């Protein structure tokens, strides 16, 4: 797949000769127009899925028609809560493949664990559904590229779930960077300072009643069940999650790249480790990553830090952009401030959010990918930056990367980590 520049993101195309996977293509039941009712299925409803449900139910002429989760206890409770809140029943499904067979579903919203994101979205595109997919868009670079190909091949609207892309304040902040408010912007810094406690080690245990453990694991290799995985701490295990740089951090990696106007880097260096807890997490508690763009004279610094920590100019989770005439501080997703000159004189500032779900719905109704604030191409890049940092950390060395070929340079060991071994039938196809 070609390298996407920021200016080319919405012009991406793929060969039309790619083969179709086993999931059948289904034409949506509705030809969208201004008055058409959009029927959405939410897949994965225990965590971020709750926000997806309310986000879509808050839209005009949009109905969450189906809830899907591999944990039938969660599914039953979610359906009950939905009925109590909205005064109507909702369909339920354990298996997302049954959802994709339903011709009345126009779009799916994916909030599963990370290792399911890309495959669930690819299958949805093949089944004729538009897709809102949580961050990170993919669990590794290979499947991210396949998702971009699928979105373009089947001409589907695919939104990456990074809300800051629809923030009025963030859009204004990026315009300031482009217009030279802080001068030549040469460095972006991302920070993720989150409260991440000891999770212990609960060992193996029987699969809880109601949980389809095989389906939960999906594309990952089979493991015995542990309470340490379900329902949140899977983030800290390589088979399912990507650590905090691939969890919270994808919001910030996305903003780093957006603000600097860059794609994938040429040099990656990461270092860190587990310094606090003697628990069973596999991912690092502390991670410092540097992404260098020598040809463009730009650099990204990224830091994951847990537990007790100072703030950086008032932020714990956010971004800082540095230019030769000032700097910009972004706190969270919707709040920016600027400081100009040697005296750090306060400059333009704003705090205002946006509605990322509405942006997706508007693009679906118009059948226009160009309306998307978070197109899947940007999701692929933001997730890939996190994955590249994790690969450098796991190998314990700096890496050279070719952003055009999207492979490491003369490094078989690192290139092997651009994908994973998939478990049938949950296989990300080479030809989508």
From TrEMBL:
UniProt cross-references to SUPFAM superfamilies, sorted A to Z: Glyceraldehyde-3-phosphate dehydrogenase-like, C-terminal domain, NAD(P)-binding Rossmann-fold domains
Signal sequence residues: none
Gene3D superfamilies assigned to the protein according to its UniProt record, in alphabetical order: Dihydrodipicolinate Reductase, domain 2 (3.30.360.10), NAD(P)-binding Rossmann-like Domain (3.40.50.720)
Organism: Emticicia oligotrophica (strain DSM 17448 / CIP 109782 / MTCC 6937 / GPTSA100-15)
Residue ranges constituting the Gfo/Idh/MocA-like oxidoreductase N-terminal domain according to the UniProt record: 38-161
Short name of any one Pfam family annotated for the protein: GFO_IDH_MocA_C2
Protein name: Oxidoreductase domain protein
Segments forming domain Gfo/Idh/MocA-like oxidoreductase bacterial type C-terminal: 178-255, 356-427
Record-linked InterPro entries: Gfo/Idh/MocA-like_OxRdtase_N, Gfo/Idh/MocA_oxidrdct_glycsds, Gfo/Idh/MocA_OxRdtase_bact_C, NAD(P)-bd_dom_sf, TAT_signal
């Amino acid at each position: 797949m070609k390298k996407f520049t920021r200016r080319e993101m919405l012009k991406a195309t793929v060969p039309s000769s790619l083969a179709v996977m086993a999931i059948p293509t289904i034409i949506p039941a509705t030809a969208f127009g201004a008055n058409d009712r959009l029927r959405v299925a939410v897949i994965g409803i225990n965590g971020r899925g709750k926000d997806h449900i309310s986000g879509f139910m808050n839209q005009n002429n949009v109905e969450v028609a189906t809830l899907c989760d591999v944990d039938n206890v969660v599914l039953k409770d979610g359906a009950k809560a939905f009925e109590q809140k909205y005064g109507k029943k909702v369909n339920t499904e354990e298996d997302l493949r049954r959802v994709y067979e339903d011709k009345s579903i126009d779009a799916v919203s994916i909030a599963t664990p990370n290792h399911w994101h890309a495959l669930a979205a690819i299958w949805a595109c093949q089944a004729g559904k538009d897709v809102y997919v949580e961050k990170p868009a993919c669990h590794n670079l290979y499947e991210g590229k396949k998702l971009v190909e699928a979105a373009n091949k089947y001409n589907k609207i695919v939104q990456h779930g990074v809300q800051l892309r629809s923030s009025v304040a963030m859009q204004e902040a990026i315009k300031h960077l482009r217009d030279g408010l802080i001068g030549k912007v040469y460095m972006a810094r991302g920070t993720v300072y989150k409260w991440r406690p000891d999770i212990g080690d609960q060992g193996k245990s029987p699969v809880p009643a109601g949980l389809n453990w095989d389906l939960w694991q999906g594309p990952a290799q089979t493991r015995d069940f542990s309470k340490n995985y379900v329902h949140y701490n899977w983030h800290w295990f390589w088979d399912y999650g990507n650590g905090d740089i691939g969890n919270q951090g994808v919001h910030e990696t996305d903003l780093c790249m957006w603000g600097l106007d860059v794609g994938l880097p040429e040099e990656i260096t990461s270092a860190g480790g587990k310094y606090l807890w003697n628990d069973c997490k596999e991912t690092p508690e502390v991670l410092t990553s540097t992404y260098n763009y020598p040809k463009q004279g730009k650099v990204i610094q990224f830091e994951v830090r847990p537990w007790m920590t100072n703030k950086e100019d008032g932020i714990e989770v956010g971004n800082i952009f540095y230019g030769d005439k000032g700097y910009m501080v972004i706190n969270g997703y919707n709040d920016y401030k600027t400081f100009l000159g040697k005296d750090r004189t306060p400059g333009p500032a704003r705090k205002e959010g946006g509605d990322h779900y509405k942006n997706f719905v508007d693009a679906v109704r118009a059948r226009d990918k160009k309306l998307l604030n978070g197109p899947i191409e940007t999701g692929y890049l933001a997730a890939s930056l996190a994955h590249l940092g994790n690969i450098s950390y796991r190998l314990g060395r700096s890496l050279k990367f070719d952003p055009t070929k999207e492979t490491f340079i003369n490094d078989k060991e690192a290139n092997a980590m651009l994908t994973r071994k998939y478990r049938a039938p949950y296989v990300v196809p080479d030809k989508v």
